[in-house]
């Protein structure tokens, strides 16, 4: 029996959520090599809970990690062949509580943020735990208690995962498992627009790139009272979802002059531009379509240096800032919007697979098979979703 260890002695469990001896977990070997195996169920420590994973969404960053390793960091290095389980956009049911945890109860449905910073460094103290200075330091002599689930610790392509209580958000009874996995994506968009950006109602927002973050940025911007909200995209099926999520205007980048059209719609340029593509074309468009004193949020990870008119930013007092995830509990606020049904995030969820079908799910996400946007792996604990592919 694995739970006779000292860590488990202090953990609260319940007969209502019986724990198996071991859990199924996907483990990364060499790049792109995932194997379904059995692992010991981790014990939650102080300020932590054990979550039974009910559903996990696939993110472009997962595909990146599987191929290149980065931005995952396990024991100070690349995540390959370290018995590491990826997956970070998950939700589930609390199955056990660490010592002293009274903020949640066993049986609570929760969705999670990824980052629990160290809580000690300058950025964590500011609430910018995504930018924690002790990122990845959670092992051996440098254990600062930092966790970024699925990046620096084991994640959600498994039956159970440990989470810090600060990273968990209760899920309303009428929200499906699949929808709840999308909260952290909406929270990332929210953090970019409000906490980092300072958006107030009535300001104009342009979102370039209708991927999951871009589409939910449209939804969040609209819910926050931005006006107008403009989406720039090339794929009509995604542009259409953008309209349903609240875009007042959609610009088809294939056959319109994007900058000229934004100027026409906003007069002096957009107050906010969220660039979710981050290539040379979109960066230059973003710079030239931003109003004086406006802000550009870079929500993409360009692999190559990008050439653009830096002087234009200076002359026009334009702010440029990057965003690498959620922060300052923006995910909690995104859940408030979704619980109130201010927008229907389910529109970006296109496919559901079982845990055993993870490789197929990854393939759908990677190759955008059947116009896949958000692909979700569901453990089948909740009600069946009609989008399940058989
Ligand atoms: Zn993600
Ligand atoms: Zn920190």
Question: How would you sum up this structure, described in words?
Answer:
With about 400 residues, the chain is an alpha/beta fold. It folds into two domains: about 180 residues, Alpha-Beta Complex (Quinone Oxidoreductase, Chain A, domain 1), CATH 3.90.180; about 130 residues, 3-Layer(aba) Sandwich (Rossmann fold). Helices cover about 25% and strands about 25% of the residues. The protein is built from twelve helices and 17 strands. The strands form four sheets. Strands 3, 4, 5, 8, 9, 16 and 17 form a seven-stranded mixed sheet that branches. Strands 12-11-10-13-14-15 form a six-stranded parallel sheet, sandwiched between helices. Strand 16, helix 12 and strand 17 form a beta-alpha-beta unit. The model has no long low-confidence stretch (mean pLDDT about 95). The protein binds zinc ion (2 copies).
């Amino acid at each position: 029996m694995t739970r006779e260890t000292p860590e488990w002695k202090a953990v609260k469990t319940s007969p209502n959520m019986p724990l198996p001896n071991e859990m199924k977990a996907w483990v990364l070997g060499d790049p792109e090599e995932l194997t379904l195996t059995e692992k010991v169920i981790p014990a939650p420590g102080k300020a932590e809970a054990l979550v039974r994973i009910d559903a996990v969404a696939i993110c472009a960053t997962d595909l990146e990690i599987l191929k290149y390793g980065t931005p995952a960091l396990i024991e100070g290095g690349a995540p390959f062949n370290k018995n590491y389980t990826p997956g970070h956009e998950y939700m589930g049911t609390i199955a056990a509580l660490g010592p002293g945890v009274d903020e949640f109860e066993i049986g609570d449905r929760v969705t999670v943020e990824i980052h629990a910073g160290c809580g000690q460094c300058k950025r964590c103290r500011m609430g910018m735990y995504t930018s924690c200075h002790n990122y990845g330091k959670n092992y051996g002599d440098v254990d600062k208690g930092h966790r970024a689930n699925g990046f620096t610790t084991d994640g959600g392509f498994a039956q159970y995962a440990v989470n810090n209580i600060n990273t968990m958000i209760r899920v309303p009874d009428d929200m499906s498992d699949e929808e709840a996995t999308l909260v952290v994506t909406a929270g990332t968009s929210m953090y970019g627009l409000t906490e980092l950006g300072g958006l107030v109602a009535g300001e104009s927002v342009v979102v370039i790139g209708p991927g999951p973050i871009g589409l939910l940025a449209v939804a969040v911007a609209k819910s926050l009272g931005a006006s107008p909200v403009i989406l720039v995209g090339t794929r009509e099926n995604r542009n259409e979802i953008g309209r349903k999520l609240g875009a007042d205007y959609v610009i088809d980048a294939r056959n319109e002059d994007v900058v000229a059209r934004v100027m026409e719609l906003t007069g002096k340029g957009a107050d906010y531009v969220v660039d979710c593509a981050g290539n040379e074309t979109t960066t230059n468009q973003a710079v030239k379509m931003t109003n004086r004193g406006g802000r550009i949020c870079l929500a993409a990870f360009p692999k190559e240096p990008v050439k653009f008119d830096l002087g234009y930013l200076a002359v026009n007092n334009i702010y440029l800032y990057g965003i690498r995830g959620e922060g300052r509990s923006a995910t909690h606020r995104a859940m408030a919007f979704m619980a109130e049904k201010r927008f229907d995030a389910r529109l970006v969820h296109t496919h559901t697979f079982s845990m055993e079908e993870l490789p197929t799910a990854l393939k759908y996400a990677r190759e955008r098979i059947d116009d896949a946007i958000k692909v979700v792996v569901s453990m089948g604990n909740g009600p069946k979703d009609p989008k399940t592919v058989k």
